[in-house]
Amino acid sequence: MKTLLLARHAKSDWGDPSVRDHDRPLNARGLRDAPAMASRLRDEGVRLRHIVSSTALRARTTADEYAAVFHLEVADEPALYAASPRTILAVAAELPDEAEVAMLVGHNPGMTDAVAELTGEHVELPTCAVAECAIDIDAWVELIEGSGRLIALRTPRT
Fold first, then answer.
1. Among 12, 13, 21, 126, which residue has the fewest nearby CB atoms (within 10 Å)?
2. Where are the domains of the chain?
3. Is the pTM of this model over 0.85?
4. N- to C-terminal Cα distance for the chain?
């Protein structure tokens, strides 16, 4: 059994229109929500072992907050920036097998759509949301569309 956490980055700052989309930082709410969600996962007993993030600043900053709480390193994956659900699931299929619980940090609409493709559940991931999906596989390479089950959807407001 594997657990995949599909996480949308925390709220980003749109205050400076000259900043490229890839380089947008988190705003004050995002800087508050990301560490709070990371601590919440830890406090709820999630045993996160591996984190892969989009290279966009807002996603990487969010991932760094999870990494700090779980004492992990973040692996950068450029393909997660503006990724399709198929790309997201392909990245998940390449996760290291020793990581029983892994997280991908990315963007919408891809993350919301990836949850739907993996689990058949149509939920909306607001900023800083984490969808926890159980997958009955022994190796990540076995991950296919429809093979997961949504265990929990956590948002900063719930």
1. 21
2. 2-10+22-154
3. yes
4. 26
Residues 65-75: tens digit of each pLDDT: 999 999 999 99
Q: How far apart are CA 33 and CA 1, in angstroms?
A: 29
Which residues lie below 8 Å from residue 20, measured CB to CB, with a gap of 6+? none
To the question of domain 2-10+22-154 being in CATH 3.40.50.1240, the answer is: yes
d(C-alpha 139, C-alpha 141), whole Å: 5
In degrees and rounded to multiples of 5, residue 26 shows phi and psi of -80, 150
Contact 56, 24 (CB under 8 A): yes
Which residue in 107, 103, 33 sits closest to 70, CA to CA? 103
Give the rounded distance of the alpha carbon of 62 from its chain centre.
Answer: 9
pLDDT in tens, 37-59: 999 999 999 999 999 999 999 99
Q: Name the residue with tokens 């392909």.
A: 90
Q: Which two tokens stand for residue 62?
A: 């969010």
